[in-house]
């Protein structure tokens, strides 16, 4: 198990270095030099230009700059935002909890509906239920989520007036930041309406962001289930007189969830990509919105840092999923 | 499963030719109702894209200042000459949607074409060279895969700058790893087959082996991936357009049409709903078709 | 009275309009403690029959029978739950491929304890001891260590022993073994078969042994059922069925055996193939391949007749009828 972990890690380190290289190259591939690019259309006199070049260390040879970049990144120093002059890391950490909270809700939403739906569809295969689940999930993963989000707003917020349109909590509440997760902070604040407000702000973004993972999970669960239900050991379990429920939950589900687990890991990428759109639409102050704004403002250090950190999250989560995979799959656990 | 008839003929006469692979594919594909719906829709979209100039009642960028935000014809206040209404600057929605089809298909064709051809070359190179080149290419793909799709596209746009062409490059890069991995995997599987060894012994050069001997036998999964990738390309392009990072106004691209009408979401539902429906239908069509192709090709992949 | 008594069993797949007939008009009796060999070419419906006995045919498969009783209980009218409770307890089954018949997520011990718990219950410790005892009975060395092993850590022979342990866990009266040694190495085949027969003798359980190996049947079975295209062609006692086969198909199977081909230049084979799903002959199913076929064979189906007690044959022109009757 430990050697399995180390082996996975060994593969990930070059990948990670590759990402730093890519992100580093990003700023140097922009036409003109970085300082020019940052200054935008306004232009800049050459003295100031030269001064900035020296200040950012941009006059040194590229390999030196890269090594410097990697070492600084390893220490958590990703430079400063050109617009706010804040440390990129600081800005990221301020916004990350919002994205984390939203993603967590979205994946929970997707799991609690998608997996049971997939199981039921597989169990009742070729029934109306099966066709229904498959049809809805096909529509789900073909859905442009920015449009889906707008429809949700149009219906639930504009027509019915049930949910707010943007932000994380109504303006009259301002719970102290403890965990960064608004649901928890609003509870801790002790104000009666705060939690309700935070929860109602979360509903639509959760649905919007969770729809694609939900559709994907339902499909994957169904096909994994169908595959497992056709396995010899399922037939053998039935031949031993085990009840259908027991066969389903103990023998089939466990094996079917192994591939589904990988798919759950892959959803982290989908969630982060989806956050870019969802957060922009719901004015959700997370890293997706932050990055889109940074691109529009040509705030390259922020774009750079945001991409690096997002990739780090994706890699880390997939490493964790690989580990879990080892735990639930004895064939891997016992590999030496 | 064979019908009794064909089995009998084969058994008794042994001469009737097996159905051609394409005919067989079509037979399997046709049996899938969803796939047929997808194909029909795709056909419809292609038709609209090809003949947009003739079908569309107006130019997609011509502004009719006296009919700003006219609702669709069947809604109260709608004008008969603007079947699906007009947008906030008085352009005909129907014409914009029809021209948008052309753009979306073009985006799909260019980005998938680029991605697939580069992917095939890289994948075959990796499969045939092995060693450091192989590792290098695959590590690069790992790097690209670690970045969430839209995020990678956004990163590419950050370098290249917003715009339709750049959005296509970005999408091509995002999809690259899928094609490289697929090509490499099937090429490695094929490489060890007897017919490849036979051509090698017969003195076929590496390039010939790669593109003429092996590649045609790896096409099935690539075609499926291409079709499914097409839908992702349309979706991502629309998302980039929506974020203002793809096609720029006044280009009638569905995503950017949606974005430019956002403020009218409450007063004029059609400017927001219609482009969304167009995107959804296009994506759905290619997904249905891709799924159908995969199911029809699958038994052959296993064989 | 027979332990298992089936009359007119049919199993159809496909649609109602175009059924695929897997088993048709099958009668089968098995007495307590009896070893019955079932033989027949691939696709003759042996596995489908055994799954139908277990009640494990899933939709779109359809099972029908005139009568179907086990130990005097009518399985056709038995509630689903009770029918299920009989599986593993009264009737058990082992399959062809032991490597895939064990759940990869569970240890050997998990499998055994689960089965025992479902049927018999008891404290975990007692169950564990029973499980250990069973592993010893199927001659698995170092059973305590094997309890914690996962299926992927076992060899094929070892897995089949575990499957056998699972099957005999609750002392079934009938054990169905569907080609239990086909997937195993030649060297362990004999050992596993030996084990099965020992357990059968010791426990006095009936054994329905499905196999392609007529040699094995000749050595082990009391009675043989020969199947072809979903029908029983002949049943008879060992050894008379081997010395005086009544059905042309049985005769053909026997003459295809290597030991009956000594001195010949090439092995005798049965010409032609088993009829496909949709091209079943109108008359005798064997007619296209039978060297004795007459015109009447092509137009009418023979029924299963009993020329004497203990044997049945489905043929208009049975062989060896004038020969000595056993
Ligand atoms: N689920 C099913 N759907 C359709 N046809 C089936 C199904 N299961 C079995 N059959 C058909 O029933 C017939 C009998 O199959 P069966 O597996 O019982 O043969 P068998 O005698 O066990 O052969 P083998 O020696 O190869 O194990 C075959 O022709 C098969 O095609
Ligand atoms: S009935 Fe006729 S065809 Fe059938 S086995 Fe007997 S002799 Fe052969
Ligand atoms: Mg069988």
Descriptive terms for the model:
heterotrimer; A: mainly alpha; MetI-like fold; 14 helices; B: mainly alpha; 12 helices; 73% helix; 0% strand; binds adenosine-5'-triphosphate; binds iron/sulfur cluster; binds magnesium ion
Overview of this structure, please?
The complex is a heterotrimer of chains A (336), B (303) and C (326). Chain A is 76% helix and 0% strand. By secondary structure, chain A is an all-alpha fold. The relative contact order of chain A is 0.14. Chain B has a domain at 106-301: MetI-like fold (Orthogonal Bundle), CATH 1.10.3720. Chain B is built from twelve helices and no strands. Chain B has helices at 4-12, 21-30, 33-50, 52-55, 93-129, 131-146, 149-160, 164-191, 194-201, 206-242, 254-260, 269-302. The model of chain B is unreliable at 1-16 (pLDDT under 50). With 326 residues, chain C is of the alpha/beta class. Chain C is built from twelve helices and 13 strands. The interface between A and B is large, with 46 and 41 residues. The complex binds adenosine-5'-triphosphate (ATP), iron/sulfur cluster and magnesium ion. Iron/sulfur cluster is lined by residues 248, 284, 286-287, 290, 292-293, 297, 302, 315-317 of chain C.
Short description:
Chain A has 336 residues and is an all-alpha fold.
Number of domains of chain C: 2
Radius of gyration of chain A: 24 Å
> Biggest sheet of chain A, open or closed, and with what strands and sense?
none
Strand order of the largest sheet of chain C: 7-8-9-3-10-11-13-12
Low-confidence stretches of chain A: none
Classified in CATH, the superfamily of chain A is: MetI-like
Shape of chain C: globular
> Can you tell me the CATH architecture of chain A?
Orthogonal Bundle
Q: How helix-rich are the residues of chain A, as a percent range?
A: over 70%
- Percentage of β-strand residues of chain C: 15-25%
| Main sheet makeup of chain C | 8 strands, mixed
Rg of chain C: 21 Å
Order of helices and strands of chain C: EEEHEEEHEHHHHHEHEHEEHHHEE
Topology (elements, then pairings):
The complex is a heterotrimer of chains A (336), B (303) and C (326).
Chain A: H1 2-29, H2 34-39, H3 46-55, H4 62-74, H5 88-123, H6 128-141, H7 145-159, H8 182-189, H9 192-229, H10 232-239, H11 244-281, H12 287-296, H13 300-328, H14 330-333
Helix pairs in contact in A: 1-13, 5-6, 5-9, 5-11, 6-9, 7-9, 7-11, 8-9, 9-11, 10-11, 11-12, 11-13, 12-13
Chain B: H1 4-12, H2 21-30, H3 33-50, H4 52-55, H5 93-129, H6 131-146, H7 149-160, H8 164-191, H9 194-201, H10 206-242, H11 254-260, H12 269-302
Chain C: E1 4-14, E2 19-30, E3 35-39, H1 46-54, E4 62-64, E5 67-70, E6 73-74, H2 80-86, E7 91-94, H3 98-101, H4 108-119, H5 124-137, H6 143-146, H7 156-168, E8 174-178, H8 186-203, E9 206-210, H9 214-220, E10 223-228, E11 231-237, H10 240-243, H11 248-255, H12 295-299, E12 305-308, E13 311-313
Parallel strand pairs in C: 3-9, 3-10, 7-8, 8-9
Antiparallel strand pairs in C: 1-2, 1-4, 1-5, 5-6, 10-11, 11-13, 12-13
Bound molecules: adenosine-5'-triphosphate, iron/sulfur cluster (SF4) and magnesium ion (MG).
The site of magnesium ion (MG) has 3 residues of chain C, from helix 1.
């Amino acid at each position: 198990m430990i050697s399995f972990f180390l082996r996975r890690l060994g593969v990930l380190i070059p990948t990670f270095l590759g990402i730093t290289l890519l992100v580093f190259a990003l700023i140097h591939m922009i036409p003109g030099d970085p300082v020019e690019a940052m200054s935008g259309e306004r232009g800049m006199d050459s003295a100031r230009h030269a001064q900035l070049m020296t200040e950012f260390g941009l006059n040194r040879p590229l390999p030196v700059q890269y090594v410097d970049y990697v070492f600084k990144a390893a220490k958590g120093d990703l430079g400063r935002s050109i617009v706010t002059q804040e440390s990129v890391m600081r800005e990221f950490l301020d916004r990350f909890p919002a994205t984390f909270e939203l993603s967590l809700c979205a994946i929970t939403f997707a799991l609690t509906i998608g997996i049971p739906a997939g199981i039921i569809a597989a169990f009742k295969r070729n029934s109306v239920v099966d066709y229904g689940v498959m049809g809805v999930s096909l529509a789900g993963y073909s859905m442009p989520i920015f449009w889906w989000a707008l429809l949700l707003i149009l219906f639930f917020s504009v027509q019915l007036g049930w949910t707010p349109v943007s932000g994380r909590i109504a303006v009259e509440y301002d719970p102290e930041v403890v965990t960064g997760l608004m649901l928890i902070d609003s509870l801790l604040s002790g104000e009666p309406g705060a939690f309700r407000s935070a929860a109602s702000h979360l509903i639509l973004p959760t649905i919007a962001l969770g729809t694609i993972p939900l559709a994907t999970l339902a499909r994957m669960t169904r096909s994994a289930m169908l595959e497992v239900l056709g396995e010899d050991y399922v037939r053998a379990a039935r031949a031993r007189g085990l009840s259908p429920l027991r066969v389903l939950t103990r023998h089939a589900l466990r094996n079917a969830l192994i591939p589904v687990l990988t798919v759950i890991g892959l959803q982290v990428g989908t969630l982060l990509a989806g956050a870019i759109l969802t957060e922009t639409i719901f004015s959700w102050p997370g890293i997706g919105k932050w990055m889109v704004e940074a691109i529009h403002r040509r705030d390259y250090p922020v774009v750079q840092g945001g991409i690096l950190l997002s990739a780090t999250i994706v890699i880390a989560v997939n490493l964790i999923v690989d580990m879990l995979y080892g735990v639930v799959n004895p064939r891997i656990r016992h590999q030496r | 499963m064979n019908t009794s008839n064909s089995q009998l003929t084969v058994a008794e006469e042994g001469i009737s030719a097996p159905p051609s692979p394409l005919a067989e594919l079509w037979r399997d594909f046709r049996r899938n109702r969803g796939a047929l719906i997808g194909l029909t829709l795709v056909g419809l979209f292609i038709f609209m894209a090809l003949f947009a100039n003739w079908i569309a009642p107006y130019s997609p960028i011509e502004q009719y200042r006296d009919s700003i935000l006219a609702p669709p014809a069947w809604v109260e206040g709608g004008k008969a000459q603007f079947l699906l209404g007009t947008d906030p600057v008085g352009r005909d929605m129907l014409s914009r949607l029809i021209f948008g089809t052309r753009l979306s298909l073009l985006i799909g064709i260019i980005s998938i074409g680029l991605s697939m051809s580069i992917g095939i070359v890289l994948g075959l190179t990796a499969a045939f060279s092995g060693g450091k080149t192989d590792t290098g290419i695959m590590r690069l793909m790992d790097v690209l895969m670690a970045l969430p799709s839209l995020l990678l596209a956004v990163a590419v746009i950050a370098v290249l700058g917003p715009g339709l062409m750049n959005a296509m490059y970005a999408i091509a890069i995002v999809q690259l790893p899928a094609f490289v991995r697929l090509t490499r995997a099937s090429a490695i599987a094929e490489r060890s087959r007897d017919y490849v060894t036979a051509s090698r012994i017969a003195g076929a050069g590496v390039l010939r082996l790669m593109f003429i001997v092996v590649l045609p036998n790896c096409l099935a999964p690539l075609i499926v991936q291409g079709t499914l990738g097409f839908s992702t390309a349309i979706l991502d392009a629309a998302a980039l357009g929506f974020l203002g990072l793809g096609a720029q106004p006044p280009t009638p691209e569905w995503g950017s049409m949606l974005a430019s009408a956002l403020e009218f979401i409450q007063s004029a539902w059609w400017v927001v709903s219609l482009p969304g429906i167009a995107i959804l239908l296009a994506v759905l069509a290619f997904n249905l078709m891709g799924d159908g192709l995969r199911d029809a090709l699958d038994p052959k992949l296993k064989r | 009275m027979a332990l298992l008594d089936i009359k007119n069993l049919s199993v159809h797949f496909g649609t109602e309009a175009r059924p695929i007939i897997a088993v048709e008009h099958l009668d089968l009796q098995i007495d307590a403690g009896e070893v019955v060999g079932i033989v027949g070419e691939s696709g003759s419906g042996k596995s489908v029959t055994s799954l139908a006995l277990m009640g494990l045919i899933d939709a779109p498969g359809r099972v029908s029978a005139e009568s179907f009783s086990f130990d005097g209980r009518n399985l056709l009218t038995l509630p689903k739950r009770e029918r299920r409770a009989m599986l593993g307890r009264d009737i058990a089954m082992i399959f062809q491929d032991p490597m895939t018949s064990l759940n990869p997520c569970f240890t050997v011990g998990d499998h055994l304890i689960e089965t025992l718990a479902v049927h018999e219950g008891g404290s975990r410790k007692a169950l564990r001891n029973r499980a250990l005892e069973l592993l010893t009975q199927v001659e698995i060395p170092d059973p305590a260590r094997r309890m914690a092993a996962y299926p992927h850590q076992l060899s094929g022979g070892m897995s089949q022993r575990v499957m056998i342990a699972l099957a005999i866990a609750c002392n079934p009266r009938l054990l169905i073994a569907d080609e239990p040694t086909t997937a195993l190495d030649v060297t362990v085949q004999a050992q596993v078969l030996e084990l099965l027969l020992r357990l059968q003798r010791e426990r006095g359980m009936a054994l329905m042994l499905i196999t392609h190996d007529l040699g094995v049947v000749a050595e082990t079975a009391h009675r043989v059922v020969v199947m072809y295209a979903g029908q029983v062609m002949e049943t008879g006692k060992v050894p008379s069925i081997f010395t005086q086969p009544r059905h042309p198909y049985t005769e053909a199977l026997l003459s295809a055996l290597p030991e009956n081909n000594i001195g010949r230049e090439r092995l005798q084979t049965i010409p032609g193939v088993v009829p496909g799903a949709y091209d079943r002959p109108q008359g005798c199913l064997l007619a296209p391949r039978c060297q004795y076929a007459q015109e009447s064979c092509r137009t009418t189906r023979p029924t299963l007749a009993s020329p004497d007690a203990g044997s049945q044959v489905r043929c208009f022109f049975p062989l060896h009828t004038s020969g000595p009757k056993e």
